[in-house]
Amino acid sequence: QKEVEQDPGPLSVPEGAIVSLNCTYSNSAFQYFMWYRQYSRKGPELLMYTYSSGNKEDGRFTAQVDKSSKYISLFIRDSQPSDSATYLCAMAASGGSYIPTFGRGTSLIVHP
Amino acid sequence: GAVVSQHPSWVICKSGTSVKIECRSLDFQATTMFWYRQFPKQSLMLMATSNEGSKATYEQGVEKDKFLINHASLTLSTLTVTSAHPEDSSFYICSASLGLAGGPRSTDTQYFGPGTRLTVL
């Protein structure tokens, strides 16, 4: 079992839909949780960063962490075609290297 | 925001040659730089981590004699793929951080470059 599991998709939704992207993990030591967006042939860019459990909202994006279930989510409201990209979750443990472990990414397609 | 550049953005080379990829932090001093490789539809795989002024720390399974990393200054790191072979063809991405590797800031302040696509014939 991989440390971080993420469905590669693709996930295709109509413009304006609410998108839910998810990752599960097995390492209970993870405490730092991140979501990156990567456009084709580009490097990832950090979207959301949370520490430990809870929710964090930034504009149309909401990140949720449920450590008891080892499950994290990214919600995108009012999705736009410009949101079409690959979304990678990443997580890191404290007390160690703090180097993130990445999921394989979910490809999102928002069609007009 | 912090900007990281990579050069070249793509390179094609013959088998057996060496290729150097540069990673620069343009508007900040990067204490730590990371090198990743990414295969199509796969996750980012960390290759090595380097703090300025010290030798790079390579991940298990990454040949340090094949992938030479030089963190020359706080704004420049280079990855040299020596004697490249077709199986080395991949997308190589660097990232730069304000924090020291081994600390939480290295997690939350990683800024990624645009990547370099290497094709070895």
Report, as a whole number of angstroms, the end-to-end distance of chain A: 37 Å
* Rg calc of chain B: 13 Å
- Helices and strands of chain A, in N-to-C order? EEEEEEEEEEE
Question: Could you state the order of secondary-structure elements of chain B as H and E?
Answer: EEEEEEEEEHEE
Helix proportion of chain B: under 10%
Cα-atom Rg of chain A, whole angstroms? 13 Å
Question: What can be said about the biggest beta sheet of chain B?
Answer: 7 strands, mixed
Taking all residues together, what is the mean pLDDT of chain B? 88
List low-confidence stretches of chain A: none
Q: Span from first to last CA of chain B?
A: 37 Å
Helix content of chain A: under 10%
Shape of chain B: globular
What summary fits the major beta sheet of chain A? Answer: 6 strands, mixed
Number of DSSP strand runs of chain B: 11
| Strand tally of chain A | 11
Query: What fraction of the residues of chain A are assigned to beta strands by DSSP?
Result: over 45%
| Greatest chain-chain contact | A-B, 25 and 27 residues
Number of helices of chain A: 0
Structural class, judged by helices and strands of chain A?
A: mainly beta
If helices are DSSP runs of H or I spanning 4 or more residues, what is the number of helices of chain B?
1
Query: Rough shape of chain A?
Result: globular
